[in-house]
Design a protein that fits this description.
The chain is an alpha/beta fold. It has 8 helices and 11 strands. The chain has helices at about 35-45, 110-120, 150-160, 170-180, 205-215, 225-240, 245-260, 275-294; strands spanning about 5-10, 20-25, 50-55, 65-70, 75-80, 85-90, 95-100, 125-135, 145-150, 160, 185-195. The radius of gyration is 21 Å and the shape is globular.
């Protein structure tokens, strides 16, 4: 590929009919769950960086500002918004490409065309995009994962469902449309994240995405660190919930809806409870004071 917008690494490796897994920080990434999951797969699969997209024409740097960092506490370095591609050899018939980045703020169609071209040159057999959304779900129940696709054959093959969503979309939705028009098979996995939790990254949602992705593409992935992080996460949130009767009642309402156990609606009257935004602010305050105390 001869395109000045893409820089290839010297250690670029040849992959066998790879599956592309993509996740982007931003609108598609509630609780940073999708990018957390992608980075975990990059780490446990030993994926090496093979290419990066020049951010110059795809970002408004006043909206998505570069970060100044200190190297060894002395040298200042600029870290720019990035979209990087990592390659990993896996057991089985397919290797993996992992695209981890930040949702562009400019030229989405040009960006999508660039990614489609990269996918074509790499002989990618399937694209799996990861996303996470805020929803009225309790933290104490398994994370709901929705898997969708457009192609009817792929829906049957991978046991997915047809997406019926209508409304605003992010770069994930735009890429899915671009892949479809280019004849590239693609699926999308979305995790539902409790809207009342101001906790990022969310290891429980990331774990659910990692497990679903590995199962979807038929590849093993070590989840030990994510399981431990999820246990710690649940303990911390349970501690928060126990300190506030309003939060406890709200979580109980969500659990009842999730379990569909036919609880008495008068006992769980959501109109008498604080809003989700108020609960999120209370949770954030609790975490801040807890961290300051420690």
């Amino acid at each position: 590929m001869d395109d000045a917008r893409v820089t290839f690494e010297s250690n670029d490796i040849q992959l066998r009919s790879p599956i592309l897994i993509a996740a982007f920080q931003g609108w598609n990434d509630a609780g940073e769950s999708a990018t957390f999951a992608a980075r975990h797969l990059q780490e446990v699969w030993g994926a090496e960086k093979v290419a990066s997209v020049d951010p110059e024409e795809f970002f408004d740097f006043q909206s998505v500002r570069p970060q100044v960092e200190l190297v060894d506490g002395l040298t200042r370095s600029i870290s720019w918004p990035s979209n990087e591609l990592f390659g990993a050899r896996l057991e089985g018939d397919n290797d993996a490409l992992i695209l981890i980045g930040t949702e562009p703020s400019l030229r989405w169609r040009a960006f999508s065309d660039l990614i489609v071209e990269l996918v074509g040159e790499r002989d990618v057999s399937l694209v799996v995009t990861l996303g996470a959304l805020l929803a009225d779900v309790p933290h104490s129940r398994p994370v709901p994962i929705t898997g969708t696709a457009v192609d009817p054959d792929l829906i049957l093959k991978l046991d997915l469902q047809r997406s019926r969503y209508e409304g605003p979309t992010g770069i994930v939705g735009v890429l899915q449309d671009a892949f479809g028009k280019a004849g590239v098979q693609s699926a999308s996995l979305w995790a539902a994240v409790p809207h009342y939790l101001a906790v990022s990254p969310n290891p429980k949602a990331a774990l659910a995405l990692v497990e679903s992705t590995a199962r979807l593409i038929g590849a093993a992935a070590d989840i030990g660190e994510l399981v431990a992080a999820t246990t710690d996460y649940e303990e911390r949130i349970d501690e928060i919930v126990e300190t506030d009767d309003d939060i406890k009642e709200y979580v109980r309402l969500l659990e009842s809806r999730s379990d569909d156990d036919g609880a008495d609606p008068e006992e769980l009257d959501s109109s008498q409870l604080p809003s989700g935004d108020a609960l999120a602010a209370e949770l954030e305050r609790f975490l801040r004071e807890r961290d300051q105390g420690e």
